Amino acid sequence: MTAIPLARQGRLRRLRKDFFGSTASTMMTLASVAVILALLRWVLNWAVLNATFSASATQAVCAERSGACWAVIAARWRVILFGIYPYEEQWRSALACAVVVVVIVLSCLPRFWSFGRLALTWGFGAAIFYILMRGGVLGLVRVNEQQWGGLPLTLFIFVATGVIGMPLAIVLALMRRSELPVVARVTGWIIDTIRSLPLLSILFTCAIVLPFMLPGFLVGEKLYRVVFGIALFFAAYQAEIIRGGFQGVPRGQEEAAKALGLPYWPRMARIVLPQAFRLALPATINQFVIAFMETSLVVVVGFVELLAAGNTAYHTGEWKFAYIEVYAFVAAIYFAFVFGLSRYGAYLEARMSAGQRKE
Amino acid sequence: MKLSIKTALVAGALSLPALAAHAGVGDTLKEVQGRGQLNCPGDIGAFLGFAEVDDKGVWKGLDIELCRAMATAIFGDPAKANIVPIDWAQRWPALQSGDIDIVIKASGGTLSRDAELGLQFSMSYYLGTTKVIGHKALGLTSLKDAEGGSICLPASTTIERQVSSYLSAKGIDMEIVALEKNEEVEAAYFSGRCDTFAQWGPVLAVAASQAENPDDHVFLSDVLALEPEVMIVRQGDDNWVDIANWTLTALLFAEQEGITSANVAEVKANPPNADIGKFLGANPGMGKPLGLADDWAFNVISKVGNYSEIFERSLGQQSPYKMPRDMTALWKDGGVLFPLVVD
User: Fold this and answer.
1) Which entry of A282, B67, B256, B287 is 20 to 30 Å from A92 by CA?
2) B49 CB within 8 Å of a chain A CB
3) Are B135 and B163 in contact (CB under 8 A)?
4) Mutation test of the interface with chain B: which of A65, A147, A208, choosing the one with the most B Cβ atoms within 10 A?
5) Given this model, what pLDDT does residue B22 score?
6) Is B10's CB within 8 Å of A75's CB?
7) Three-state DSSP class for B67?
8) Is residue B168 within 8 Å of B176, Cβ to Cβ?
9) Cβ pairs bridging A and B (under 8 Å)
């Protein structure tokens, strides 16, 4: 019997076994490393070594070097981030973004997880965001929703989708498992109908067709109709995810709660929902990531969100050649948000499974 | 021109009778005046030279300037033009639903738009032709020379249809490379994947002017199609069409008479003849029949400029594209544009 290997030796051995265990896997390893290195080298060359960083560079200057032309970001970053929001007022857009990020970060902290605190944070956050973006009060110039653009618009749509969609999803999920067959059946129909419509057609309907069908006082601003449509779509999917979570909770849990005489709401809020949520968490994070990506679809109904603003930014005589740089910049912003979201999801899973480990 | 399949679907779906009821109701001018701004379409992204966004997020381009001219005619202030960012697919539904008051968006007058969608056109303010460029090194002068070669074009647009019918009519055999995004088409052509590249003229001129070596590319002699670009409004409001037409006439008439934003005040103070005096509002009569102020044309020229000034800023010598006027010149300079008669 050999002595227990040191952890490090064990890891090395495992590495060797996993990556160089046989001729085939050795070759695969070497080939993959070669490809990765080549890609990295290419990216590094393009983005850093051969790139032009001077903010005042023009197409002619950039063309002399083979790499990226980051001058486009220096010249057009305000168009990318804020779209066609009035130039002099763009500080309001920036501040509004900061407010959203702060509110999101705050509500991610376990310390804020009480209904009162969350409601207060979100209520305040929403009010500040709305006043900053729309103006018309406190001496701020009024800016139409049509002029909103770039990052604040993307964040607004995403956050509003979550804030409206998530509670709606819970309600739908609860209704679908209602003991009254009529309620359960009808909810099922509603969910399935929404899910069988493409998001694009929902967007078009909300933006363009609804004004013809609704009475005037219900029409409202196009942005809010569209956000409502996206939230409805999100809720239909999320409701099914939560229902999946419900099905994973052992029947005995609810029966035991009933036996203890807990009425419906405490039973749901304290026994069933928390467990269902934990089971549904990976899929929920997934759904949020998708929702974030799908905000870029609102471009088809005439909103200049982040990606469209990027499009606008390079679409001009001087910068037409530099679209890869602009897309890379926009991709980095998306990456920062989505990566943060998935890491937070991983943290939540670790935290929630803490009590589970003993089993 | 940019009639993709998506566009067609949406336009088709939304031009149903439900919408037709909205068309042509009310007096558009009164509605615009009541609202205090004129709503025109911009773009999602940009359409180079016609509607694009500068470093400060302000719209510019030929279509945008025409909208500003019209806003100036109505309000005396170009800033009253409100540019709504909408996509190609949405311009008709947006016009029908009243989100915008007029479509000035590099759009041609077609039978289906006129008769089926229930729209009405102004005179043409620009003539767009579909053309082809080729690599100079190949020594091409027309598409006939490129027989057996390849042609790059944007997929599922009218360009694709025009090219294939032109090729079959002339009996030229070429490999068609259709790609989805204009950037892809351009990249494919400039990287040498295709011998030639077909597009709407202005887009092509812009692309060629931005090439690494603009001199390496030549315009072939073929003209595949002509599309007269017009301003488009809902059917049934004749006064509104008149205002669009007379705004355009003011721009062209000023150019014809040599009136620019620089000298318009001088000319107004000292009109060379009675018609110009009336045109600039020195004598009454220019505004009343249209429901506008008598000095509306003066405002347009002094605050926006004449047609030539607008063109040179947007597409011509003062722009990065340096496009010649060509057919879009005034009749007396060998072009086809003309003002109506101011009497």
Assistant:
1) B67
2) yes
3) no
4) A208
5) 44
6) no
7) helix
8) no
9) 96
Residue B234 CB-half CA count within 13 A: 23
CA A100 – CA A93 distance, rounded (Å): 11
d(CA A98, CA A111): 21
Closest CA to B133 of B152, B118, B149, B117: B152
Surface-to-core class of residue A46, CB atoms within 10 Å of its CB (0-12 exposed, 13-18 middle, 19+ buried): middle
* CB proximity B46 to A under 8 Å: yes
Q: What is the 8-class DSSP label of residue B81?
A: E
With an 8 Å Cβ cutoff, the interface of chain A facing chain B consists of: 59, 63, 75-76, 78-79, 82-87, 90, 144, 146, 149, 204, 208-209, 211-212, 222, 299-304, 308, 311-313, 315-318, 320-321, 323
Residues of chain A short of pLDDT 50, as ranges, are 1, 358-359
Q: Which two tokens stand for residue B110?
A: 């077609």
Please state, in angstroms and rounded to a whole number, the distance separating the CA atoms of residues A350 and B312.
Answer: 63
Q: Which of A63, A313, A317 lies nearest to residue B320, judging by beta carbons?
A: A317
B212 → closest Cβ in A63, A79, A302: A63
Mutate to test the interface with B, among A58, A301, A314 (most CBs of B within 10 A): A301
Residues of chain B positioned with their CB less than 8 A from the CB of A225: none
Residue with tokens 């004004």: A211
Domain boundaries, chain B: 5-127+228-260+298-333, 128-226
* Span B269-288, pLDDT tens digits: 988 998 899 999 888 888 88
Q: Candidates 1.10.220.10, 3.40.190.10, 3.40.50.2300, 3.40.50.1000; correct CATH number of B5-127+228-260+298-333?
A: 3.40.190.10
Tell me if B233 sits within 8 A of B102, measured CB to CB: yes
Contact with chain A for residue B56, Cβ under 8 A: yes
Minimal Cα–Cα distance from B65 to chain A, Å?
A: 16
Looking at residue A52, what is its pLDDT? 79
Contacts of B182 in chain A (CB under 8 A): none
Q: Do A316 and B46 touch (CB under 8 A)?
A: yes
Query: DSSP string of A227-249?
Result: HHHHHHHHHHHHHHHHHHHHHHS
Tell me the pTM: 0.81
Let me know: does B277 contact B257? Beta carbons within 8 Å.
Answer: no
Burial A114-147 (b: 16+ CB within 10 A, else e): eeeeeeebbeebbebbebbbbbeeeeeeebbebb
For A214: left if phi > 0, alpha if psi spans -120 to 50, otherwise beta; the answer is beta
Structure tokens given for A138: 């406190």
User: Chain B partners of A296 at a C-beta cutoff of 8 Å?
Assistant: none
Which one-letter DSSP state was computed for residue A141?
P
Report how far residue A206's alpha carbon sits from residue A235's, in angstroms, rounded to the nearest whole number: 16
pLDDT score at B234:
92
**Are the Cβ atoms of A84 and B86 closer than 8 angstroms?**
no
- Point out which residues pair with B229 in neighbouring strands: B108, B126
The helix-helix angle for B201-209 and B182-190 (nearest 10°) equals 50
Return the SS3 of A250: coil
* CB contact B12 to A (< 8 Å): no
Interface pTM, i.e. ipTM: 0.73
In this prediction, the residues of chain B whose per-residue pLDDT falls under 50 are 1-25
What is the CATH topology of the domain spanning B128-226? D-Maltodextrin-Binding Protein; domain 2 (3.40.190)
Residue-level pLDDT at B38: 94
